[in-house]
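Give me the fold.
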Amino acid sequence: MKRSLVLLLCVVAGILFVSAASWAAEEEVIAAMVKARGEVKPIPNPASQIADLDVKKAYEVQKKLIKAFEAKGEKVGGFKAGLTTEATQKRFGVSSPLLAPMFKSGELGDKAVVKTKGFVKPFLETEIGYVVGRRIDKPVKDVASLKKAVKEVFPAVELPDLRFADLKGVKGVDLIADGVGAARYIVGKKMPADKVDVANIKVTLTLDGKVVNTGTAPEALGDQWKALLWLVNGAVEQGWTLEPGYVFITGALGKMIPCKPGSYKGDWGPLGTLSFTVE
């Protein structure tokens, strides 16, 4: 009897030790990620540091990372979707799109000047953005209900930063843990949501007058409103409350391309244009 009790206690102690070690590793990784962003330095891939990093645990790490920045004064200004095509999901070893908060401090406007020295490995994506007009703290039932909650739409460019030391070995869980590369995002002129048919938007992006990217609205999960519904409900399911004025970008139209210096101009047809310079 005593022997069985001793064995049981040893097993429990072992489990607690492993759990404590894992927790400590997560906190250390998060602290290192915060420090690296401040110093604009690459980070080791989280999956190489945190044991058994799956999607669920990666989102837990992401939330702790966001809270760490909020403690430093950052404020969430919206949410982004990533890997919104089957091809990109397969490439990074996940079976669904990814999402992450974006900080208000990362928001830029039309004719912005982007300094690449603030990035580790900057990229560009042309997207469509949305502004919610009311507080959302429960899953939205359907697209019809969602449309009632969306106030405005706008042309958007995301400038994600892939901050990993080993880019070739990046997995979906690495992306999730580091906030899906959220860094800067450009918000164009906002229009009433009921004045634009976002389902048929086409975008062309030029760099110094030459076309460098084209895309169409359905490339984000096949349908813009379904993509936004997934993003909104996904954020709520992760425990976030969505406040009026938050912006949402639903994924790349066309390709994610390297962010090179020069003058850019994007044309979203009826949704408008925006321009920016990268230095």
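The two ends are 73 Å apart (CA to CA).
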